Amino acid sequence: MFLNKVIIYGNLTRDPERRSLPSGMTVVSMGVATNRVFVSQGQKQQETEFHNVIVFGKQAEIAAQYLKRGSTVLVEGHLKTRNWQDQQGVKHYRTEIIADRIQLGPRGASTFSQNNYPAQNPNTTKPLNTAEQDIPVIEETTPAPNDTINPSIIDPENEEEIDIKDIPF
């Protein structure tokens, strides 16, 4: 058995972009940044990764309504790579996370300051009331439609190019 499962927890890099499929289903695309801290040559280093996430259906509607740039979100899903040819005949690839489940983070309680380093004193943030601590978990009961790779959904002009030589297989 093979496994294609992704779990990320990070901050939105831009406001969610909401669209509708011809079937009427809502689709949201959003960018999520994650980071990892490691030690290299005795120095503490931080590396940031940027992920493209696609959300469908009711989850997409909720994401569009409640999430904004800087919001914290947990995404569970799977990787999907799509490809297309531009007008010059160059083939482009884009790997995205198709969300199976999202969980919204607490409002106004980011663990990172403006410069993306951990806050010096996390106890200085205002306490959350019980309503803010109830973080909704949103699960989609129907799988994402097969037309998720439709190039007309996302503008290829704004796509990041992946060189075929960078693919490890």
- Structural Rg: 18 Å
Strand order of the largest sheet: 1-3-4-6-5
CATH topology: OB fold (Dihydrolipoamide Acetyltransferase, E2P)
Order of helices and strands: EEEEHEEHE
Mean pLDDT: 78
Question: How far from one another are the termini?
Answer: 19 Å
Count of β-strands: 7
The CATH homologous superfamily name equals Nucleic acid-binding proteins
User: Structural class per helix/strand content?
Assistant: mainly beta
CATH class: Mainly Beta
What is the number of domains? 1
- DSSP helical segment count: 2
Shape, per Cα inertia axes: globular
Biggest sheet character? 5 strands, mixed, barrel
Detailed description of the structure:
The chain is mainly β and about 170 residues long. It has helices at about 55-65, 130-135, and strands spanning about 5-10, 15-20, 25-40, 45-55, 70-85, 90-105, 135-140. The protein has one domain: Nucleic acid-binding proteins (OB fold (Dihydrolipoamide Acetyltransferase, E2P), Beta Barrel), CATH 2.40.50. Strands 1-3-4-6-5 form a five-stranded mixed barrel.
Helix and strand topology:
Elements: E1 6-12, E2 17-20, E3 26-40, E4 43-56, H1 57-66, E5 72-85, E6 91-104, H2 130-133, E7 137-139
Parallel strand pairs: 4-6
Antiparallel strand pairs: 1-3, 1-5, 2-3, 3-4, 5-6, 6-7
Summarize it:
With 169 residues, the protein is mainly beta. It has helices spanning 57-66, 130-133; strands at 6-12, 17-20, 26-40, 43-56, 72-85, 91-104, 137-139.
Overview features:
single chain; 169 residues; mainly beta; OB fold (Dihydrolipoamide Acetyltransferase, E2P); 5-stranded mixed β-barrel; 7 strands; 8% helix; 42% strand; globular
